[in-house]
Amino acid sequence: MASSYGTDADKSSLRSNYLCFRRGIPERARFESDSSIASALMAFPLFVKAPLVLTYVSRGAEVGTHALIERLLTSGRRVAVPRTDPETHAMSFHEVGSLDELSPRTMGILEPPSDAPALTDPAQLVGSVCLVPGLVFDGAGHRIGYGGGYYDRFLAFYPGEKIGLARITMLSSNPLPTDGHDVAVDFIATEGSVWSCRAH
Predict the structure, then answer these.
(1) Residue 185 contacts by C-beta under 8 Å, 6 or more apart in sequence?
(2) Considering only CA atoms, which of 149, 161, 130, 8 is closest in space to residue 65?
(3) Which pLDDT does position 1 carry in this prediction?
(4) What angle do CA 15, 129, 115 make, to 5 degrees?
(5) Percent of the chain having pLDDT more than 70?
(6) What average pLDDT does range 148-159 have in this prediction?
(7) Secondary structure (DSSP) of 95-163
């Protein structure tokens, strides 16, 4: 995997470094990487069979999900995206039928309206997959996000499979620092392949 900033760096330093590095990647290079990641994901049997896909809505230099969401919806797949509560740092997923339903809310992220069908019962999520964002992932599936804790709170009770989306440059060769509440992903989709984190 790609080089890291080392296990002695705290989360804040790693977050700052990877944010800075990601901003410097040319747009064309990001697009090519993200297209390759999406292709690997669409060839991954577990993802293909999932009746419901939970996914973040990308912004800025994140691994892009807009084209993937449109592709899933066009093919008749069920898709849900997050709506956040900045006061409690809680997050719920709501089923959508089009990206046009979304509008900017917390930190300018596109979110579904409050009346979009909410998937609040864990039984509704059995068999689904959740695409998880991050700034950097390690081989055990641990990640460093943006520091809000939204995903860790949600994933702690999520019954489905968790798939991190990461460019090669977002993979750490060293273990990342973790806290007790951190939730690792089960798989990582990167350019050309999806690999399991469970053996680590």
Answers:
(1) 132, 137, 141, 143, 162, 163, 164, 197
(2) 130
(3) 38
(4) 90
(5) 94
(6) 92
(7) EES-GGG-EE-GGG-EE--TTSPB--SGGGGTT-EEEE--SEE-TTS-EE--SS-HHHHHHTT--SEEE
Is 4's pLDDT higher than 60? no
- Residue 82's pLDDT is 96
- Provide the CA 145 distance to its chain's centre, in angstroms: 9
DSSP states along 115-129: TSPB--SGGGGTT-E
Beta strands across the sheet bearing 90-96: 90-96, 78-85, 52-55, 129-132, 161-165, 187-190, 193-196
User: Does the model's pTM come out above 0.85?
Assistant: yes
Distance CA 45, CA 42 (A): 8
d(CA 86, CA 93): 15
Task: Give Rg (Cα) of the chain.
Answer: 16
Quick one: average pLDDT of 6-16? Answer: 68
What gap in Å lies between CA 175 and CA 33, rounded to an integer? 23
Instruction: Note the pLDDT tens digit of each residue in 89-99.
Output: 889 999 999 99
Write down the residue that tokens 């968790």 correspond to: 162
Place of tokens 């950097």: 136
H-run or E-run covering 78: strand 78-85
Q: What is the pLDDT of residue 199?
A: 63
Nearest to 136 by CA among 180, 188, 181, 69: 188
